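Task 17 of the worksheet. Students: predict the tertiary structure of the chain below and write it out as structure tokens. Keep your answer in the requested format; marks are given for formatting as well as content.
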Amino acid sequence: MSIETPLPVLKPADFASDQDVRWCPGCGDYSILAQMKKMLPTLGLPRENIVFISGIGCSSRFPYYMDTYGMHSIHGRAPAVATGLKTCRPDLQVWVITGDGDGLSIGGNHLMHCIRRNMDLNIVLFNNRIYGLTKGQYSPTSPLGKKTKSSPMGSIDNPLHPLSLAIGCEATFVARSIDTNIKHLSATLKRAADHQGTAFVEVYQNCNVFNDGAWEYAKDRKSKAETTLELEHGKPLIFGKDRDKGIRLNGLEPEVVELGKGITEDDLLFHDERSPEPSLAYLLSRMRYEDGFPEPIGVFRSVDAPRYDVQINEQVEQSIKEKGRGDLEALFNSGDTWKVT
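Model answer:
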């Protein structure tokens, strides 16, 4: 009879590496790192079963600062590297750390296909609407008219909306949080970690050097009650300092209404994160402060679907069962061969 040794109880400090954390003072990345370290001990996993994979950018220094396994890969390819690892080692919990530049420009193709496959990965995209590491060029999420070193007359590129992209690829878990909303951020990361399938989390993150205040309307204590809306499954979409405003549908269009003027909570749109139909989640992802709407934070969608990493390993096992294990040497010498002299 064997007795299993219980896992040691880990603390946030146990996940801190011996590397000096080198981001600009005041960068929102510090908060995301801190909340990740606080959340991971709640999972009850040994550190050797957790892997962080990143691409290139300020956010991509993340694996250096975690005392887990990790890989600082190449620009935009973290989802591809993570796909290979999770396929070969399904026992590992794999996190992809990326940014709006790394993940949505050169990495857009890899991100899209990773999401549609529903790999059991957790993707955290830091969105500061700028290229920080390369010193302030406009990024795929920069708003129209944004003046930067690479768009001195103002950006004319229509910005990408990360959650809309993820939901369009039918991601099974989609969420948004804010770097300074630490309790919400930690809870959102925990929800992502518990999800079976691709979990995509966008974090509004401030680059205080090259794009300071990009999300101030969603972070300032005086304004955030009016400019953000915290999603709760099964609850009506209510917001405002006095919780006197809500969102209802007018046909297929959302609109802001005031409660108490012939309008009750029953008239509002109720959030259903478990709906298999992604249309309402997509509608929520399109709500913008500049268009007069509060911007939702929290879990937009959380559903179950077949997973690529599970199915491909099932196919491998089925092939071995039917044909036996392969012989690489025999494969190399099979079929038509010729000798070059």
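Marker's comment: The two ends are 63 Å apart (CA to CA). Residues 328 and 334 are 10 Å apart (CA to CA).
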